[in-house]
Specification:
This protein has 267 residues and is an alpha/beta fold. The protein contains ten helices and 14 strands. It is globular, with a radius of gyration of 18 Å.
Amino acid sequence: MYKAVFIDMDGTLLKSDHSVSDANRQAIHHLQQKGILVVPISARPLHGMKHIIKNVVADDAPLVSLNGGYIVHKDEVIFQDAVSLHEAASVHKELSMYDVSAMYYSQMEWFAEQETDRIKKEQKITAVKIKIQPFGETLQYWDEQKNGPNKILIAGEKHLVHDIEQRLVELHGGKLNIFKSQSTYLEVMSSAASKAKAVEFLMNRYGIEQKEIIAIGDNFNDQGMIEFAGMGVAMGNAPEQIKAVANYVTDTNNNDGVAKALQYCFN
């Protein structure tokens, strides 16, 4: 019945130590041997995904990075969409009023104005070195390159992230996709970029129907694809709001939740 599975990475496929369990790996290999498409779909940049999913998913599987803002298949970019420079500048101006760390991801590069502890934490899981420079220089660089940020990541204390989310939705709702990937992480993309839209894009590309799709995730940036899929699965470690919209709730990311979900769906 199911022909494709879209699996979030952090908090879902990955354990808390950022590794993939043997049970999850074997479950994915089993599906791929049956000809089922398995797609990693992450808020991470592409270079933060590749080293982890190597030997987990097939080499010819599409990879969805930056919450659907940048999709690659066999090293070819098949979809990308960026926040406009006007919107990016407006968001940056708003963020300057808060004690948070803002990171701007554009294709295979990422930028920030200063190196904070939160940025150092992201650098540990990102193969490409961040570029630290004034935002004006980054804006000018994007203008010259005719591109912009596929994703803006805002990291900070829970209450600040909550307040910023409310403020940005008030200012940019409808023009930007804004949602949390964790209580301390806020993700901002263009309105054309989201995990749900990435699933729909690949569904059309592969000729797969909505009812033939499984989506597995654990947080608010996964909610759209969980609701969109024929079978939406929430992790046991997901917030109650995400569990409430899922067709099935599996075990936690530290207890082979993905493998158990796949066993449930394909038995």
